[in-house]
Amino acid sequence: MCQISLNGFKNSRHNAITKSQLSSISGRPDGPRCKSSKFAFYADDGGACSDCVLELGVTTPVIPNRLSIWAPVGHQIRDIELVSPTGLTVARLGPKEVFCDMPFTTLVSGVDAVIDRVRIHATKSLSIDAVMLESKLQNQNCQSCTTPVYNVHRQPAFDNGDSMVEVKPHYFVDRYYVSFSYFLIIISDFFKEGTLKSVTSKSAV
Questions:
Q1: Host H or E run for residue 22
Q2: How far apart are CA 63 and CA 66, in angstroms?
Q3: What residues does each domain of the chain span?
Q4: Confidence (pTM)
Q5: What is the pLDDT of residues 83-118, one digit of tens each?
Q6: Is the CATH number 2.60.120.260 carried by domain 2-138?
Q7: Shortest CA distance to 82 belongs to which of 112, 39, 40, 41?
Q8: Cα–Cα distances in angstroms (integers) from residue 120 to residues 71, 117, 141, 155, in the given order
Q9: Quick one: which of 92, 126, 140, 176 is 20 to 30 A from 104 by CA?
Q10: What does the pLDDT look like over 109-163, one tens digit per residue?
């Protein structure tokens, strides 16, 4: 089970951080790679957070398996804490270096407790676009989940006149030697929340 951070909280000692800055960390990664982005949080934006602690939460508490962080600019993180629903620190991952051309991803080993928050100890150079927490396998919340369905849209349309084909495997082959433009929409039945539809992907040729 993978969850993108949906809310952010600041350390109360650093009131310079605005709600708008915190909201920029929430949701899927939506900024360009290795470029300044209005969709990301920057610690040095107006002196907001040169040595503060950002606390990012997810909806469903899980036993963690993997943590990923997207950043528009490479930087150092002083420490990362994994936090339980009661506010206790379950584990510390220590200092980390994050690069802009790929998401920082680390496996979380030796943690069998449930967490629902991640605390990131910032440096002045910190920038964050999104944070994702992945649970260990066989998460009970996924027992009623179904395999996602992929709606593949093509421009121009397919030979039968349809502009979309529904695909259940994780791949799609279009056997033509000319260029087409494609984009995806993912349909998923996600446990208690019913059927969810993703945002439309960027177009690919």
A1: helix 19-23
A2: 10
A3: 2-138, 149-197
A4: 0.67
A5: 999 999 999 999 999 998 888 999 998 898 999 999
A6: yes
A7: 112
A8: 13, 10, 26, 42
A9: 140
A10: 889 899 999 998 887 778 888 888 988 877 776 666 667 788 888 888 888 888 8
